[in-house]
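question for whoever is on the cluster today: can someone run the full assembly for these? two chains, 831 residues total. i dont have access anymore since they changed the login thing
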Amino acid sequence: MSKLKLNGVSKAYGATLALRRGDLEIAAGEVHVLMGSNGSGKSTLCKIIAGSVRPDRGEILIDGHPVTISGPQSAREQGIGIFYQELSLAANRSVEENICLAMLPTKAGIFVDRAALKARAARYIALFSGVSGDGFAATTLVGNLRADQRQLVEIMKALASEAPILIFDEPTSALDRAQVDRFFDILRGLKRDGRGIIFISHRMDEITAIGDRVTIIRDGETIQTLNLSETDPAAVIRLMVGGAGDMPASQSSAPAAARFSAGAAMTVDGLSGAGFRNVSFEVAKGEILGLGGLHGQGQSALLRAIFGAGSITSGEIRIGGDRFDAKSPRDAIRRGCAYVSGDRGRDGVIAGRPIIENVTPIHYLRDRLMVARPSSLKAKAMPALEAMHTKFASLMYPINSLSGGNQQKVIIARWLIDRPDVLLLDDPTKGIDLSAKADLFALIRQLAGEGLGILLYSSEDAELLGNANRILVFNGGSVTRELTGEDRTRYNLYQAAYEAA
Amino acid sequence: MTPTTIETRPIRPGGLKLWLERYPFLPALIIVVALLALNGAFSPNSLSYRSLTGLLSTYMALIMLAIAQTYVVSAGDIDLSAGATLSLVNVVIVVLMEKWGGGASAVIGAMLAGILLGLACGVINGIVVAALRLQAIVATFATSIFFTGLALYVMPVAGTPAPALFWRSYGGRLLGLPFVFYVLAVLALLLFVLSRTRLVTQLLAVGDDQQAAYQTGLPVVLVRIKGYALCGLFSALAAFCLTGDTASGDPLVGSKMTLYSVAAVVLGGSALAGGWTTVVGSLLGALTIGLVNSLVFFMGTPSEWQNFVQGLAILLVLMAGVLAGRRARA
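^ ran it for u. tokens below:
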């Protein structure tokens, strides 16, 4: 009998279906791997099991009995423990308090039993002794720990639940080799105890090392469950990609070797900083260079660092032959560098202000405008907005009155009044509709045709394959592969992204 | 997916930082000592046993109120009705003591009623903020008006005297020591006991990161309501001290104390965002406000300038404390 079974579970956030149809069956004593590309619904599925997200439909069975999981507390009572990808730690509490936080041992029902808490936490801390690194002690505040050490605390906290069903949602992303090995030893022990374990990772070598079965999720739907011993990584990746995986990039793709104008728009040489290491490339004038790979492998960090919003520790950037080392975004903008983020709310929209104010800030900065004359600004703003086919009633309406796609068009339009030399696109189509995406990419190609150098990072592989002339695949902060010409296939992109870092 | 970050931050906190992590009220303590020294410099008499006892009994109400505020701030909440709760409990116990004859049993009965009333006010706040999910600042501002309204209904005009037994006990001596010292000792014991409870750890975890606490499986709503209940309890205790000090009922007495209590929490070294608080610091923060006020008085500031100088002094103390803390914790 299966330990945990999910039948047709679904979850929608407004109009977006995060999970269309999730089916999953976990047996006692197995490590069951969940695989799927970014945004395929893995994390949503895990959160439904852990009770922090309520499903709209479907049923959950534990040991064959249908159960209702009303919240994280009820999930714990039903014997489910989880490692959260984004961690669930209290930064100002100590390591031992965090490990035991869910079930604080008590005296007389109201007092914390410090001795019992110490003893219980020590058991789990001891599991990682020798690999937990400097400065890791039971009484250290979690906020003082390094990223990998915090991840270890979250693992210990999940283990401390002693739950028969354990979920690990990317538990190894910050861990080093020795820590991963130790963790896998612990997992093997749990398997022998007959626990059911769900494991998510993006490193193929880890998956084959620890997994028994794998369930593949694509576009919010469970595709298939396979025994890992009877399959090979290539087959798994093919299932994740879907039928069209082996086809070269679609016919709408940009030419592999366009007639680029002479000279490089931007040269990056051995650049390292927070989140990326030793990155070198050249973008020709008129070229769209794609940055691919799994989410959070250093692509955004690199783009932000070039734009002066992140830190650079070594290396060199050149734009049009001159050394370019922007100290701040303000500096970068003055020197002809543009940056569009997919996170409009944080990086783009001036919320609550009229559209015209949202189109013109870059113009103010580049032209050092002191006094704004609405009529002349309007004359400059209109062509930029029209180039994007932006739909709006009046320039004076607040930007919040527009849809997400139209808001993003306004944000891009602000860079079109004074043309930059280099355009950095950081997942620019996040959360916008299909027609807006089409408009956006038509414009991006047109800009490339006019001689801009464009760096495009997208979490949707189809966008990279359809628009980029070349693709650099990022893994663990550095470029692990370059795809050009006929190599630009979905399969190659996935394979490079899932290789061990 | 966690981006691979290369961290350069030192892992092991240095000496001063470690001290501050263990005793976050240290800057507040230094400031209190400095203010005592300044007071002494301007008027040696202000450091006498008698005047210090007086200072303590006058500011004990604010100390209690600051501690009340600390518990809700721990969970990342705030209570702008703490002062109104104090006023309400103040007028209710004065009226009850008078009605019940002013004897020992009347005093004890009224105090029990006052504690229940304070708890009730706290629970109402907790339900409004945590269960109904209204913004803490606005919701407790609204309940403060509501509580003030009740207080005005109970006692429309200030001035009803408290029975002599009550204020004579508070201002008097027991076994040769001022009564307020016993209050302080009981308070210290209470704070020590509370610091060991599961509730306080849970409050701090909720204040640290509410989403994380929820995902951990903590009963976040219940924990926050309990935090407000604790705040209501201490507001009632503050009302007892105030009644003992002023010997009368006043339906508006607490309104201006609310923001002083918030200021005392911050002066004491707590983070207003929650997750990092110190009740000892809040006690010292309340004393800081008291000492600033007495310093302004002893310096012989002309009465029309007193508010100006008070505000300036509190601002300076806040800057000193915050800057020192920031440098050490950075």
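summary bc i know u wont read the tokens: The longest helix of chain B spans residues 104-131. The first strand of chain B starts at residue 173 and ends at 174.
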